[in-house]
Amino acid sequence: MKKLFTIGYEVAALDDFMRVLKTAKIDVLLDVRELPISRRKGFSKTALGGALTEAGIRYRHEKQLGSPKTIRHQLREDGNYPRFFREFDRHLIEQSELLETLAEELKGNVALMCYEKDHEECHRRSVANALAELLGKTPIHLGVDDHAREASKAARSYPRQGVSAA
């Protein structure tokens, strides 16, 4: 893997989302949603996979790297991000073999995708950090506005306690 990116599509139109991926020279989009469906046009598995294929980007969905339903529902109820990330990180430990396989198999520039615009409020941050540790890389977080920022190596921050509806 050359570079590791993350991206959320919360406020994105499909055209803008694809433009960001092309600008970053993404080779593989790794969908880390447990359920690869969306109310946002173009972001469900089949439609997104087709658009990516047309753009020369490989699509791969890994359900096991998604946030389990029980953890998501608890977050919706209490808005407790520290608990959410603790529980998701425990889940992620159980996926260590899959993460090691992905670290070996994925070639080129890879972007992890989920819904949330802000990677600090999304489980993909944990997935990216786990892969980055295996690869010795620093994840780069892409925004729909094509703005990239390197992940902070500082301690996690949990900027808000509320949860927006998907």
Topology:
Layout: E1 4-8, H1 14-23, E2 28-31, H2 45-54, E3 58-61, H3 69-78, H4 81-93, H5 96-105, E4 110-114, H6 124-135, E5 140-142, E6 148-150
CATH topology: Protein-Tyrosine Phosphatase, Chain A
Q: Based on Cα principal axes, name the global outline.
A: globular
Alpha plus pi helix count:
6
The computed structural class is alpha/beta
Report on the biggest sheet: 6 strands, mixed
Summed up, the domain count is 1
Proportion of strand residues:
5-15%
Q: How large is the radius of gyration? A: 15 Å
Low-confidence stretches: 146-166
Q: Report the CATH C-level class.
A: Alpha Beta
Our measurement of the CA-to-CA distance between the termini, rounded to an integer number of angstroms, reads 31 Å
H-E string: EHEHEHHHEHEE
Report on this structure.
The protein is an alpha/beta fold. The chain has helices spanning 14-23, 45-54, 69-78, 81-93, 96-105, 124-135, and strands at residues 4-8, 28-31, 58-61, 110-114, 140-142, 148-150. It has one domain (4-149): Protein-Tyrosine Phosphatase, Chain A, CATH 3.90.190. It contains 6 helices and 6 strands. Strands 3-2-4-1-5-6 form a 6-stranded mixed beta sheet, sandwiched between helices. Helix 3 (69-78) runs antiparallel to helix 4 (81-93) and helix 5 (96-105) packs across helix 6 (124-135). It is globular. The N and C termini lie far apart (31 Å).
